[in-house]
């Protein structure tokens, strides 16, 4: 299968473009599209065969459920049971936006493989004109995980999607770089108080300002995860990634040590290290593309500088810990 990439940010062929994407999704195919967080790989969430193609293209384990994207709060409410007042308040406050709500799914609406046989479903309204245009035209809920090969860094550019999905999907809508760069906050509304399963751009404090106290999942610290996706290796480039405290003396010493063994080192940090073999910037917007750039070098080891003061809201640290499999350089 050849993979077509269509630029949509300059409104080129707008109607035609969307018609093509809508046609593919309605006939059970998959289309990659931009959201404000990362690019998604979308299929009709009511069609098990179509959803199966997403798992196949990504090489994603079947027990990891997908997020369903809809165009409005009203659409979301149609698909779930027992919507709490808190959930309604959060939809009003943060949608469209980077907050996924886990709620009880109405039976027999979504294909079983979307929810990995759970009784709950994760839903959000993405805040991106291309995603919203597509959703409004297709008039179906779209199941869409991040559009990367399973285990690799999420795509923040159409080029990243092309790299991972070439020959595997028919169409990529190119809306330019994604704004936020890190996946949505996932909040489980089926427990009381609600629980953050995955930290993201929408913070605990912002949510608490709307609905009062919530918790962070204990899984964030390596316990058996409730969010099935959290137990797998994630965001990892080829060379091993190590965390290191963002202290210039420590990092310089580490670079010297690695190079002393005849190996090449890439450093991801907010400040530059000219003595490193490769250096890439580290911020929420650049994290995934920097991890991907490491794969284009012959670095043997990747050091990521992280601040010594951290908290559970730190969604960049959460992703880095997974990319590094919690390894610290020593
Ligand atoms: O920003 C995002 O959320 C992006 C864009 C494309 O919308 N999507 C995304 O999807 O990150 P994905 O599939 O890569 O991550 C979904 C996360 C996984 O950790 C999954 O385990 C969790 O949400 N999840 C989905 N449904 C769930 C459910 N019913 N219960 C618990 N966790 C769920
Ligand atoms: Mg993902």
Automatic annotation (TrEMBL):
<dbReference type="GO" id="GO:0061710">
    <property type="term" value="F:L-threonylcarbamoyladenylate synthase"/>
</dbReference>
<feature type="binding site">
    <location>
        <position position="235"/>
    </location>
    <ligand>
        <name>ATP</name>
    </ligand>
</feature>
<keyword id="KW-0067">ATP-binding</keyword>
<feature type="binding site">
    <location>
        <position position="198"/>
    </location>
    <ligand>
        <name>ATP</name>
    </ligand>
</feature>
<feature type="binding site">
    <location>
        <position position="124"/>
    </location>
    <ligand>
        <name>L-threonine</name>
    </ligand>
</feature>
<comment type="similarity">
    <text>Belongs to the SUA5 family.</text>
</comment>
<dbReference type="InterPro" id="IPR017945">
    <property type="entry name" value="DHBP_synth_RibB-like_a/b_dom"/>
</dbReference>
<comment type="function">
    <text>Required for the formation of a threonylcarbamoyl group on adenosine at position 37 (t(6)A37) in tRNAs that read codons beginning with adenine.</text>
</comment>
<keyword id="KW-0808">Transferase</keyword>
<dbReference type="Pfam" id="PF01300">
    <property type="entry name" value="Sua5_yciO_yrdC"/>
</dbReference>
<protein>
    <recommendedName>
        <fullName>Threonylcarbamoyl-AMP synthase</fullName>
        <ecNumber>2.7.7.87</ecNumber>
    </recommendedName>
</protein>
<feature type="binding site">
    <location>
        <position position="146"/>
    </location>
    <ligand>
        <name>ATP</name>
    </ligand>
</feature>
<keyword id="KW-0548">Nucleotidyltransferase</keyword>
<feature type="binding site">
    <location>
        <position position="144"/>
    </location>
    <ligand>
        <name>ATP</name>
    </ligand>
</feature>
<feature type="binding site">
    <location>
        <position position="37"/>
    </location>
    <ligand>
        <name>L-threonine</name>
    </ligand>
</feature>
<dbReference type="GO" id="GO:0005524">
    <property type="term" value="F:ATP binding"/>
</dbReference>
<keyword id="KW-0547">Nucleotide-binding</keyword>
<dbReference type="GO" id="GO:0003725">
    <property type="term" value="F:double-stranded RNA binding"/>
</dbReference>
<feature type="domain" description="YrdC-like">
    <location>
        <begin position="15"/>
        <end position="202"/>
    </location>
</feature>
<dbReference type="InterPro" id="IPR010923">
    <property type="entry name" value="T(6)A37_SUA5"/>
</dbReference>
<dbReference type="GO" id="GO:0008033">
    <property type="term" value="P:tRNA processing"/>
</dbReference>
<dbReference type="InterPro" id="IPR005145">
    <property type="entry name" value="Sua5_C"/>
</dbReference>
<dbReference type="InterPro" id="IPR038385">
    <property type="entry name" value="Sua5/YwlC_C"/>
</dbReference>
<dbReference type="InterPro" id="IPR050156">
    <property type="entry name" value="TC-AMP_synthase_SUA5"/>
</dbReference>
<feature type="binding site">
    <location>
        <position position="60"/>
    </location>
    <ligand>
        <name>ATP</name>
    </ligand>
</feature>
<feature type="binding site">
    <location>
        <position position="184"/>
    </location>
    <ligand>
        <name>L-threonine</name>
    </ligand>
</feature>
<dbReference type="InterPro" id="IPR006070">
    <property type="entry name" value="Sua5-like_dom"/>
</dbReference>
<feature type="binding site">
    <location>
        <position position="69"/>
    </location>
    <ligand>
        <name>L-threonine</name>
    </ligand>
</feature>
<feature type="binding site">
    <location>
        <position position="154"/>
    </location>
    <ligand>
        <name>ATP</name>
    </ligand>
</feature>
<keyword id="KW-0963">Cytoplasm</keyword>
<dbReference type="GO" id="GO:0006450">
    <property type="term" value="P:regulation of translational fidelity"/>
</dbReference>
<feature type="binding site">
    <location>
        <position position="120"/>
    </location>
    <ligand>
        <name>ATP</name>
    </ligand>
</feature>
<dbReference type="Pfam" id="PF03481">
    <property type="entry name" value="Sua5_C"/>
</dbReference>
<feature type="binding site">
    <location>
        <position position="64"/>
    </location>
    <ligand>
        <name>ATP</name>
    </ligand>
</feature>
<dbReference type="GO" id="GO:0005737">
    <property type="term" value="C:cytoplasm"/>
</dbReference>
<dbReference type="GO" id="GO:0000049">
    <property type="term" value="F:tRNA binding"/>
</dbReference>
<keyword id="KW-0819">tRNA processing</keyword>
């Amino acid at each position: 299968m050849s993979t077509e990439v269509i630029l949509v940010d300059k409104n080129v062929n707008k109607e035609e473009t969307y018609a093509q994407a809508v046609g593919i999704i309605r006939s059970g195919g998959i289309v990659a599209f931009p959201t404000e967080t990362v690019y998604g790989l979308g299929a009709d969430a009511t069609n098990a065969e179509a959803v199966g193609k997403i798992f196949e293209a990504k090489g994603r384990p079947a027990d990891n459920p997908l997020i369903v994207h809809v165009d409005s709060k009203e659409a979301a409410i149609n698909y779930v049971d027992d919507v709490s007042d808190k959930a309604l308040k959060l939809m009003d406050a943060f949608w469209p936006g980077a907050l996924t709500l886990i709620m009880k799914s109405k039976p027999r609406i979504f294909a079983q493989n979307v929810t990995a046989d759970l009784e709950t479903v994760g839903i959000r309204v993405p805040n991106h004109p291309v995603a919203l245009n597509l959703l409004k035209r297709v008039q179906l809920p779209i199941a869409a995980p991040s559009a990367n090969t399973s285990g690799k860094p999420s795509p923040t550019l159409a080029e990243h999607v092309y790299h991972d999905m070439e020959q595997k999907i028919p169409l990529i809508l190119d809306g330019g770089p994604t704004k936020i760069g890190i996946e949505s906050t996932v909040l489980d509304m089926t427990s009381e108080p609600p629980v953050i399963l995955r930290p993201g751009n929408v913070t605990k404090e912002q949510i608490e300002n709307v609905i009062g106290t919530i918790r962070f999942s204990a899984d964030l610290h390596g316990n058996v995860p409730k969010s099935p996706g959290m137990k797998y290796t994630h965001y990892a480039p080829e060379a091993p990634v190590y965390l290191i405290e963002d202290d210039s003396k420590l990092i310089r010493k580490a670079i010297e040590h690695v190079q002393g063994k005849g190996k090449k080192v890439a450093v991801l940090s907010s400040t530059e290290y000219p003595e490193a073999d490769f250096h890439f910037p580290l911020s929420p917007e650049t994290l995934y593309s920097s991890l991907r750039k490491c794969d284009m070098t012959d670095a043997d080891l990747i050091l990521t500088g992280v601040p010594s003061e951290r908290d559970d809201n730190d969604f960049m640290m959460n992703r880095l810990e997974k990319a590094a499999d919690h390894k610290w350089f020593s």
